[in-house]
Design brief:
Elements: E1 5-10, H1 19-29, E2 33-40, H2 42-51, H3 56-65, H4 68-76, H5 82-92, E3 104-110, E4 116-119, H6 124-131, E5 141-143, E6 146-150, H7 159-165, E7 170-173, H8 188-193, H9 199-211, H10 226-242, H11 244-248, E8 250-252, H12 267-284
Parallel strand pairs: 1-2, 1-7, 2-3, 7-8
Antiparallel strand pairs: 3-4, 3-6, 5-6
Helix pairs in contact: 1-3, 1-12, 2-6, 5-6
């Protein structure tokens, strides 16, 4: 890292995106000014907290203290996404983006047209909520006649939006690198339900899965179910969409490929990896 002022592009990746916090800590320690932040999905959440005045150490304490199991139970039981809305609004406050001290943008996808939508004005919590609306997990947000969902559908790492926010070199943080062979995360369906469903429900699901096994002659023990295959494919697609940013700007890629999308209980470990990846990038010069 040779710049003393950067505009950050924080990519999406659900729990993987907690690595952004570690990068922010490294930047703060080195006295590198963050001139602006553009975020997609989880990157918009971390970016909004930072742009709103929460420093990296405070963020580390905040994410480490969250009762993720309890939050998961609430989220699973709320198809409408209201608890997530309430959590964002309580955490971020009633703030207009254009009145924030640090330039900020949340990147979304218009589900009707497939176009990128960069939100730079209006209610902060609504912008972050729209940017984080993972299809199938959280419902879209209707804003100004547009149906907005997770920005990672079109812009997994918002390099161009970050570059337009400030006259400063862009530093991209991409947490979407796929896992190395043999390091796949725990099946998503189990992570979604773990700690949020009665034991008898989980037992019933396991019984059904055992009864309807895919009968392959040499089936691997870690053979993914259909939902897991869908999520892994989604992950790979996003990473391939984001790869061009590596050639255009300086990028940091924390090694969080083995972290599941909903492994928020590993917050401390993930944030530490973000910090390690930042330090490795400074060692490379």
């Amino acid at each position: 890292m040779t710049k003393n002022r950067v505009s950050l592009a924080l990519g999406g990746g659900a729990a993987k995106g907690l690595a952004h916090v570690g990068v922010l800590r490294g930047l703060q320690e080195d006295g590198i000014e963050v001139a602006a932040v553009a975020g997609t999905s989880m990157g918009s959440i971390v970016g909004a907290l930072f742009a709103g005045g929460m420093n990296p150490m405070e963020m580390e304490a905040f994410f480490a203290a969250v009762d993720w199991a309890r939050l998961g139970r609430i989220m699973v039981r709320s198809v409408g996404g209201t608890p997530f809305d309430d959590l964002l609004r309580e955490t971020l406050g009633e703030v207009a983006i254009e009145r924030m001290d640090l330039p900020f943008a949340a990147v979304c996808c218009n589900l009707d047209t497939g176009e990128e939508v960069v939100v730079r004005t209006g209610d902060l919590a609504d912008a972050v909520r729209a940017s984080s609306a993972i299809p199938g997990i959280l419902p879209p947000l209707i804003s100004e006649g547009r149906t907005l969902v997770d920005g990672a559908m079109v812009t997994p790492v918002p390099v161009i939006p970050a570059g337009l926010l400030a006259e400063a070199p862009v530093l991209a943080v991409n947490v979407l690198r796929p896992p190395k062979p043999g390091q796949a995360s725990k099946p998503v369906v189990h992570r979604l339900l773990e700690g949020s469903a009665p034991a008898q429900v989980l037992e019933r699901i396991d019984e059904i899965l055992r009864r309807h096994r895919i009968r392959l002659r040499s089936r691997r023990a870690d053979f993914p179910n259909r939902f897991e295959a869908l999520m892994r494919s989604f992950h790979i697609m996003q990473y391939n969409l984001s790869k061009p940013c590596d050639r255009e700007v300086q990028a940091i890629e924390p090694e969080v490929g083995s972290v599941g999308w909903f492994d928020f209980h590993r917050a401390t470990e993930i944030m530490a990896e973000g910090y390690r990846a930042y330090r490795e990038s400074t060692d490379r010069g």
